[in-house]
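Every protein is a chain of amino acids, and every chain bends into a shape of its own. The fold becomes a row of whole numbers, each drawn from a learned catalogue of backbone shapes. The protein below has been through that process, and both of its lines are reproduced in full.
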Amino acid sequence: MTRRLFGSVRSRATLAATLVVAVALLATGAALLLSLRSDLTGQAETEAASAARAVAVELSDGRPYDKLTGLDEDDRPVQIVDERGRVVAASEDLERVSGTGTDAVRPGRDAGGRGAEDGDDGDDDGNDGDDGDSGRSGSGDSDDDRGARTGEVDSDTDYSTGTATIDGTTADYRFASVEVEFEDRGKLTVHAGAPLAAERSAVGTATTAMLIGFPLLLAVVAGATWLVTRRALNPVEGIRREMAAITASEDLARRVPVPATHDEVARLALTTNETLAALESSVERQRRFVADASHELRSPIASLRTQLEVGAAHPGLLDLDGAVADTVRLQTLAADLLLLARLDAGERPGDARFDLGALAREHAEGRAGVTVTADAVPVAGSRAQVGRVLTNLLDNALRHARSAVTVSVRAEGEWAVASVADDGDGVPEADRERIFERFVRLDEARSRDDGGAGLGLAIARDVAVRHGGALTVGRAPAGGALFELRLPRAR
């Protein structure tokens, strides 16, 4: 069942279109999500950096910890850490934090939650009381001390992602870290976070929309492709049905329907009809050929049989010359039919080189009333078949000439031209193509013995065409027929 389903052009086209759209949607959706996440994360970084730098600027001005305005933000975690990773100040509502490198959230505790100095309780240890007095309660320094403790804010900002718990609510944050360098206190690092809730919400909403919308869109694409492909292939199915009917009925006169779309399917239908017409013509030609061949063979066979029967009954009445003539005629006709069959089968003429002028002189030799003027012109092909053409043309010319036949061979550019002209009545212009058809004789009342079977000129033209040339008939200067055989010159 699966093989039958996907063996259909419509099914394969629908599947291919759906897969292409699915890949495009996935790529577009991934790019959209990444872009959205990047933009919102960048926005959070900007907010976090602004908050961290504001606190850093206040620190650099010597403001005490309890006066820092950035620590009063309810929804923004801020953590200030010294060089040894100890928290010196933090947001008042901050309960837990991760992602800043220091998990402590109360001054006087190090990153692991221990005392600031080997388990002490937060008193100063040679730092002029700075660590013990840090936090929201302020440092207790005088204005002169604060003036002496101004620092320099680093221009670089580092970022990290973590979590923070404020007033019992845990959320994801993007932290910005800014360093402040003091001469007396060393380096302090301000960590300030901006919530990623908007980023998480927007990405989640977009992902949900894509998970719902993409399958629906793919279903629409698949359905539309299925219907459009079905409509487009309906003419093809009509062509197939008609071809099946033609095959079943063997009626080559029928034709397939041609859609009025002027597209590839319409051209396919036209080509199919042309093929059917050529096939019908070929079959009809073959039928005529068989019928005519049977008719032509029946006459000499019947005549020969009659003569043999008479000779058997009355030996003295046997017309031996007539029997021999009928036998020769029968042999010639069989040879002609065999050659036509080989030509119809597409027999290649070969590529042997020979002199057309010498061949013309050879076949004209010994014929009374024939004059030959032949140049040496090399051609390539079957010497026997081209010789057969010259023989047929000479026989035809002698049959219709009054007194003389002229043969000439010359070179004309890329062609070798052999002309056979007679001084007879010529061929009427209306019949100059019909005489090359098989079993055609213009004078039907003429004796078959004199006129032949009507295959000579048909064979001559077929051989000429198979050799890449042509055979035409026109009017000779003496008023008779002028046959011109043109073959490509051999190089």
In short: The CA atoms of residues 18 and 220 lie 9 Å apart. Confidence is low (pLDDT under 50) at residues 109-148, 444-451. The chain has three domains: 39-200, 264-344, 352-488. Residues 39-200 form one domain.
